[in-house]
Amino acid sequence: MRQIGQNIPRHDERNDIASKSKRVDLHCHSVASSLTAESVLNAIHCPECYSDPLDVHAQAKRRGMDWVAITDHDTIAGVTAIANLADVIVGEELTCWFPEDQCKMHVLVYGITPEDHANLQAIAKDIYAVAAYIEERRIAHSVAHPIYRQNDRLERWHLERLLLLFKGFECLNGAHSPLHREAFETAARVA
């Protein structure tokens, strides 16, 4: 006979699980993001980030991160400058588009090689090709800020397709309102 609470970890087991957990911020930028084509920021001469990759790493470590992932916009130049460090995850925030209407999306990819970067950049105009490449290469990923309307084209059908195309979604982003997370979680449950 099963007892109530039988599968709930005891307090000391929960502490043991927490002690084995690893912390990482999977969406960080360095000064290298400012070298790419984020046209709105470039138009007003405002960099996405002022920090050198080593400074991003140091700040992440001060904040208790076990791993450091730098995901600059459409480049791995920043993270490769510190990729020799054992606790660094090479990543990128890939700008890609739905080919039907040019709806712009960002997909964070992790643990990529320079070859992956080049291949993803070559197919970025087609989010379906990006999804297929990520699946084929088994690349860890998440759709960044999935309900943020970057070029004012995002509609419900885009979100439905994203849910079919990708396995990971960024639901918590300190640069966006918690309402984004709540709205996305609601939309994901309904879809």
Helical run tally = 8
DSSP summary, beta strand count: 5
Q: Average pLDDT, to the nearest integer?
A: 83
Helical amount: 25-40%
Largest sheet: 5 strands, mixed
Alpha-beta classification: alpha/beta
β-strand amount: 5-15%
Strand order of the largest sheet: 1-2-3-4-5
Give the C-alpha Rg.
Answer: 18 Å
How far the N terminus sits from the C terminus, by CA atoms, comes to 38 Å
From the spread of the alpha carbons, the general shape counts as globular
* Uncertain ranges: 1-11
> What is the H/E order?
HEHHEHEEHHEHH
Question: Can you put this structure into words, describing what you see?
Answer:
With 191 residues, the chain is of the alpha/beta class. It has helices at residues 11-20, 39-43, 53-62, 77-80, 114-123, 127-137, 156-165, 178-190, and strands spanning 24-25, 67-70, 88-97, 104-110, 140-143. A five-stranded mixed sheet has the order 1-2-3-4-5. Helix 4 links the parallel strand 2 (67-70) and strand 3. It is globular, with a radius of gyration of 18 Å. It starts with 10 loop residues before the first helix and ends with a helix. Residues 1-11 have low confidence and may be disordered.
